[in-house]
Amino acid sequence: MEGQYDLWLVVLSYAVALLAAYTALDLIGRASPADGWRRVVCVAGGVLALGCGVWAMHFIGMIAFHLPIRVAYDLSITALSMGFALLAALPVALLAARQRVSWREAALGGLLSGLGISAMHYVGMAAMKMSPPIEYDIWWVILSTLVAALASMAAIRLGVRLTRSRAAHRLWWRLSGAAMMALAISGMHYTSMAAAHFQPDAICTAHSFLDDETLLAISTGLLAFLLLGLTLLAPLFSVIVPKADAEHMVVLRRWHVLLLGGVLVLAMVGGSCVLLHAIYQVSMSGVEREAQLVEQLYAQVRAGPVVAPVDRQLSMLTASLEERRREGAILLGLGSAFFTVVVLLCVGVLGAVWRLQRGAQVLGEQRKRLTREIEEREAVSDALRQANAALQIGMQAMRRRNVEVTLLRDLGRMLDCCRSFDEAKDVIANHMPELFPGGAGQLYVNRANGGTLGLEAWWGDDAGQGEDIESDDCWALRLGQPHWRGTDNHPARCRHHAMRAHHETLCVPMTAQGRTLGLLTVWAPQPDRGQWLTEPERQLAQSAVEQISLALANLQLRETLRLQSVSDPLTGLYNRRYLDECMQRELARARRGGYPLGLAMIDIDHFKQYNDRYGHEAGDAVLVALARCLRQLGRAEDIVCRFGGEEFTALLPNVSRDGALAWAERLMEEVRALKVSWQDSPLGRITVSVGLAWCPDGALPPEVFIEFADQALYAAKHAGRDRLCWATDVLAG
């Protein structure tokens, strides 16, 4: 026996499955583990929505399959199939309402639910009581069961996702999940229908008023009322028990209930009345009309002779009517109970709406008070954040100042330990990048002429390319105070910053003891950076300049004192004290390096005559002329000293014996060629006597070495002056 599908009823079955899946996912997604009895209510609503939806979709799909015979459904077996539908929805709702579900648990729950859905389907088909029975293809049955299990598993996973997802994403998950679940449920049903084979001579033996039209009305009416009630009561429940963290949603939910509460009451009460009237018309009125027809037949039979087959058929028809009357009474009682539940539910809805309206003003006042408190707390919080930010900035500035003080202390301590200006330059070049990280700068020091400043130290990129500058090139030197220039087009830019027209610059003059020693200049690392040298940084630069100025002044003072202690004020040559210091040092170097060392003792011949004849000033002029000749003749490493009176000493490092002899002979020739005048009067010919001592390896003690040269000098003077003698010759003689 072949059947045909009604396309509109197929579409209706899918729409029913879609509505049931959406409602079930909505209710399950509202379940929270922390709510207790509210979770139970949501799970129970999900079970009812999903179970009734699957049951209604199943019978609408069966009604869509038209057979060429009359089809009816046994009431008790049909009710049993609804029980299987509710049992099948139970594991799905219980697992989907949890926060976490493993794949093994989801698979097991899906399998149990799939078996329940399959049992509901095949029990519902058994309610037809076909004779001969329906035959099933085992492979299609297995496939339909697998489809039901997969649909249940997908419902579990979607419910878990909705329970954990944010409210902003739940609508899309519900829509997509409901569409997928509805497609799977419909696919399971029509796969199961493909497994059924009806015999060509099969008939339906079920004696019930549950025919196709009645069952369709009951299925769609029950599902519509149930799903509509659950969908509208869910937001009402959220309004009655609002969440503490969703106070702003109360107004939206209140308007939702106020707008839809009336629709709920009218739809459910009116629909229940219509459904109850339809049940009465089908069950009670139809049975009464058939009972009247049977009474008329009985009257006709009693009026004439009774035929045994007719009497037997009338008895069977009477028994069938009695059975249908009992089923109709049961169904009418169920419809009345359903109507009573709907009325009570509507009364509860009206009470909740009244309670909501009563508390609307209180909620509004509480909301306003909470809003004011929140605004006040936010204002206090903003003030605290601002104070905290200011405190953090102050702490950062304090930490930076502490670091700067430490760096300045280290700079001053290092400069105090310097023994020369070269060491001081290295210290400044190494410490300034730490004081001004990322920037660049230069240190200029006054030259001896007083009008030019030479570049002595620098740090940063391109800072070593500068040249000497004039005092008029810098505004800081002109003004005698620090000169800062930002990145604006201020006209007072120093000429030595001409290549840095878009850099922020700072020039600080170095002064100490009332005189200008030099200039320190600093500039920003990048052009057009904005203000980089803030007021604290400019004060830091001035403090660093004070440290540097004091250190350089002390170095210059120490150098001046040292030169005065080791030099002769008349000739500018080193004195006897410096010779004693250098003698030990040079002899030690000669011993370490294994090179020779020469020593020449020089005495001006007849020097007393210049003093007696021309005066002491003339004698000083002779001494100065000889000192100048010695400086011009000597090498850079030679050490020339005034030994005392008219005697001079020349220490010649790393010189051979012949080299010392040549140096002495050349000296004597240069002295003979000197032309010295005093007050426009020539002082006559000047000659010197020279005593030479030579040590090949620096093994002699200093006093012995000087003694040898001194004895050679005395030997030259006794030999007639204007000559030189070797210490070895004197010692050998």
TrEMBL record:
<dbReference type="InterPro" id="IPR029787">
    <property type="entry name" value="Nucleotide_cyclase"/>
</dbReference>
<feature type="domain" description="MHYT">
    <location>
        <begin position="5"/>
        <end position="199"/>
    </location>
</feature>
<keyword id="KW-1133">Transmembrane helix</keyword>
<keyword id="KW-0472">Membrane</keyword>
<feature type="domain" description="GGDEF">
    <location>
        <begin position="595"/>
        <end position="729"/>
    </location>
</feature>
<feature type="transmembrane region" description="Helical">
    <location>
        <begin position="257"/>
        <end position="280"/>
    </location>
</feature>
<feature type="transmembrane region" description="Helical">
    <location>
        <begin position="215"/>
        <end position="237"/>
    </location>
</feature>
<feature type="transmembrane region" description="Helical">
    <location>
        <begin position="40"/>
        <end position="65"/>
    </location>
</feature>
<dbReference type="Pfam" id="PF00990">
    <property type="entry name" value="GGDEF"/>
</dbReference>
<feature type="coiled-coil region">
    <location>
        <begin position="360"/>
        <end position="387"/>
    </location>
</feature>
<keyword id="KW-0812">Transmembrane</keyword>
<dbReference type="InterPro" id="IPR005330">
    <property type="entry name" value="MHYT_dom"/>
</dbReference>
<feature type="transmembrane region" description="Helical">
    <location>
        <begin position="6"/>
        <end position="28"/>
    </location>
</feature>
<feature type="transmembrane region" description="Helical">
    <location>
        <begin position="171"/>
        <end position="190"/>
    </location>
</feature>
<feature type="transmembrane region" description="Helical">
    <location>
        <begin position="330"/>
        <end position="354"/>
    </location>
</feature>
<keyword id="KW-0175">Coiled coil</keyword>
<dbReference type="InterPro" id="IPR029016">
    <property type="entry name" value="GAF-like_dom_sf"/>
</dbReference>
<dbReference type="Pfam" id="PF01590">
    <property type="entry name" value="GAF"/>
</dbReference>
<dbReference type="InterPro" id="IPR043128">
    <property type="entry name" value="Rev_trsase/Diguanyl_cyclase"/>
</dbReference>
<dbReference type="InterPro" id="IPR050469">
    <property type="entry name" value="Diguanylate_Cyclase"/>
</dbReference>
<dbReference type="Pfam" id="PF03707">
    <property type="entry name" value="MHYT"/>
</dbReference>
<dbReference type="InterPro" id="IPR000160">
    <property type="entry name" value="GGDEF_dom"/>
</dbReference>
<feature type="transmembrane region" description="Helical">
    <location>
        <begin position="138"/>
        <end position="159"/>
    </location>
</feature>
<dbReference type="InterPro" id="IPR003018">
    <property type="entry name" value="GAF"/>
</dbReference>
<feature type="transmembrane region" description="Helical">
    <location>
        <begin position="106"/>
        <end position="126"/>
    </location>
</feature>
<feature type="transmembrane region" description="Helical">
    <location>
        <begin position="71"/>
        <end position="94"/>
    </location>
</feature>
<protein>
    <recommendedName>
        <fullName>diguanylate cyclase</fullName>
        <ecNumber>2.7.7.65</ecNumber>
    </recommendedName>
</protein>
